[in-house]
Write a structure and sequence with these properties.
By secondary structure, the chain is an all-alpha fold. The chain is built from 19 helices and two strands. Helix 2 runs parallel beside helix 4, helix 13 packs antiparallel against helix 15 and helix 13 runs antiparallel to helix 16. The longest helix is centred in the middle third of the chain and has 32 residues.
Length: 493
Amino acid sequence: MIQTPHVDWFALSPSLALLGVAAIALLAAVLVPAGRRKAFSATVTFVGFVGAFVAAALVYGLSPDAATVISGSLARDRWGALAQIILAGAGALAVLTSYGEKTKEHVAEYYALLAAAGAGMLFLAQASNLMTIFLALEWFSLCLYVLCAIDIERKSRLEAGMKYLITGSFGSAFLLFGSALIYGATGTLRLDLIGRAIAERGLSDDPLIVTGLAMMLVGLAFKASLAPFHQWTPDVYQGSPTPIAGFMSAATKAVAFVLMIRVLQTSFQEDAHLWTVLLAVLSVASLVIGNLAALVQKDVKRILAYSSVSHAGFMLMAVAANNAIGGRAVLYYLIPYAAMSIGAFAVVAARERELGRDVSVEDLAGYGWERPVLGVGMWIFMLGFAGFPLTGGFIGKFYAFTAAYRHGWIWLVIVGAVATAVSLYYYLGIVRQLFLRSPVGAAGRPLEAGGSPPRDALLQIAVLACIAVTVGSFFGVQPLIDLARNAAGSLPF
């Protein structure tokens, strides 16, 4: 008689909710009349992300003690549940910003893929087994590859999808080969048993372990857009549908960092003397390359892409600190960062729809007066990215600096402070264009003014929600820190 493992369906409920929604949206492509297909698919997908948000919140509340389920392949703990809450919220906002996209074909498929990608990310946030990690990574990556290129009539979309496919495949290959080496050295796929085997057998300096760990970190660095593995990020973000670029900037980075911390803390504490230094070097590289490259960009989406590389460096600073406050810092940081990323890309999407082309910094001249809600939102998001007070970005950076300082890396804090100062140039440059520049081009001719297309109510709701999270995470910092502290308690820091 075949013995099957017990399945904790409640722990799987966030992912299952989105999987069910993806199936319904896909059926809508053939069963729902064309005129109602978009509204039906978007509504169902939004409800699915909200349902996943609620389910993850329930899992968080009812999982005070960390445990593995389904033969150790998944973790039911508050670390994964809080990550799922962030991811589900990002997905719901991505649906709102996507509704105004002018997509003639594959509308239902678009929302089905978005829901499926979200399900894969939620599943990966719980993964505690090398096999489930790789499968979940490929699950959501394949969906994003297609979403980047779903508008096949535009060459930029196809180019973005192809570049993401190629570079994403490299990252997946590194992760897979690294996992194979780790399995070969320890004889197990479970993260907790890998850590136990390394400690009991003294394998911390084993060549297979060291090489496997390095390859896994390279694979995760590709997904998190860490320099020097970030080369795909500006081109893919610029060529992809803008709501998808925002979703990738927020959600992909969030799940990559959550997974990275779980893997390192659970399996490779014995090798902390190696990976802490490596991650600190990657943090510096991301801060330097991300900020310096952003200084010379004219396209707003490329600026936001390099900004995401820079913020990956700040978050990696907290990971490299290898302490509990670093884990809490990353979880807190991801909340305002996700809101600011999706909100900023939403404003760019609104301007793109008005102009019918890519948006440069010059195209934002006077936009704060034309569209006050969007202009004020972009202003708040830029100040949040720069780490100004009254935004969650300030607390997030301060928290990351504190983690590095507690580790004794004052030099890393200084690098982060200098990087923040450099970033003021391009963040405040966008703010200046929004409110202090009239809509006149460099050659003296008027720029195209917005206002002719109808205002996108759903996109504005998404921007207002992002503003609320960005500012609210500053004033409501203590409850969020408490959530992050309880979640970090699930891992063996």
